[in-house]
Amino acid sequence: MKKSLLAVAAVCAMTSGAAFAQQAEGPWLVRVRAVNLDSANKDSTGLDLSVNNKVIPELDISYFFTPNIAAELILTYPQKHDLRAGGVDIGSLKHLPPTLLAQYHFTNFGGFKPYVGVGINYTNFSSVNFDPAVQAALNPSIKRNSWGAALQVGFDIPLTKQLSLNFDVKKVYIKTDVYSGDVKAGTFKVDPVLVGVGLGYRF
After folding, report:
1. Which of 11-15, 24-28, 138-142, 165-169 shows the lowest per-residue confidence on average (mean pLDDT)?
2. Do 157 and 114 form a contact (C-beta atoms < 8 A)?
3. What does the pLDDT look like over 25-56, one tens digit per residue?
4. Dihedral sign, CA of 162, 71, 80, 194?
5. Residue 16 lies inside a defined structural domain of this protein
6. pTM: predicted TM-score of the whole model, two decimal places
7. What is the reported pLDDT for 150?
8. What is the C-alpha separation between 17 and 7, in angstroms, rounded?
9. Are strands 145-158 and 99-105 parallel, antiparallel or unpaired?
10. Which of 159, 162, 126, 157 is nearest to 141 (CA)?
11. pLDDT tens digits, 188-198
C-alpha cells in the first residue's frame, strides 16, 4: 500500500511539475520576422507573368495547447507588387495573405527548438491596376481570392527565459485565374517560398 501511495504521489508530482513548467513558460508566443518572399511565378496564360520578389514584415501569433502542439496565425499588411509580362511592367497589385498553421514543436533538443507546420492560406488581391495600353488591348482582370496549402519548418533558439531567435521557412500556395474580358486566359501561380528571421516573445 505504501509503495502504491508513493507511486501515485510521484506521478502527481511529475504531472504538477510539468504543468507548472508549462504555465511558467506561458502559452502565447508572439514573433516579428523579416521575410524574403521569393515567387515561383508559374504562368499558364502564355504571357510569362511574374511579380517581383521583396522583403516584407511579418507578425506571428502562436498559442501552445501543449508543449508540443501549437497553432500559429501569420499576418502582415497588404503588400504591393509590380506585375510583369515577359519582364515588362504591365501594372501592379496588392496581396494580403493571412495564414493559419498547426504546428508540432520538438522538445528534446535542449536549447535548439525545431518545429514543423501545415495549414491553410487565404490571399486577397486588391488595388489591381494595369497599364492603360494593356487595359485597352486585353481588358485583363484577375480572380481576387485564393485558397491554398501552407507548409513550414523552422526553429527557435532561446536568448532569455522569454525571448528567442527564430528562423523560419514556408512554402505557400497562392494562385489566381487571369481573364481577358470574360474569357479565362489561364492561371498564374505565385506559390512563394518565404524565408524569415526574427525574434519571439513567450508569455
Report:
1. 11-15
2. no
3. 899 999 999 999 999 999 999 999 999 999 99
4. positive
5. no
6. 0.84
7. 98
8. 15
9. unpaired
10. 126
11. 999 999 999 99
In angstroms, rounded to a whole number, what is the distance separating the alpha carbons of residues 203 and 62? Answer: 11
In the block, residue with C-alpha cell 485565374 = 177
Mean pLDDT of 102-124: 96
- The predicted pLDDT at position 21 comes to 41
What's the CATH number where 109 sits? 2.40.160.20
Q: 93-110 burial string, b = 16+ CB within 10 Å, else e?
A: bebebebebebebeeeee
C-alpha cell at 68: 508540443
107, part of any domain:
yes
Phi, psi of 141 (to 5 degrees): -155, 165
Whether residue 2 is contained in a domain is answered as no
Q: What is the span of the domain harbouring residue 59?
A: 26-202
Number of domains in the chain: 1
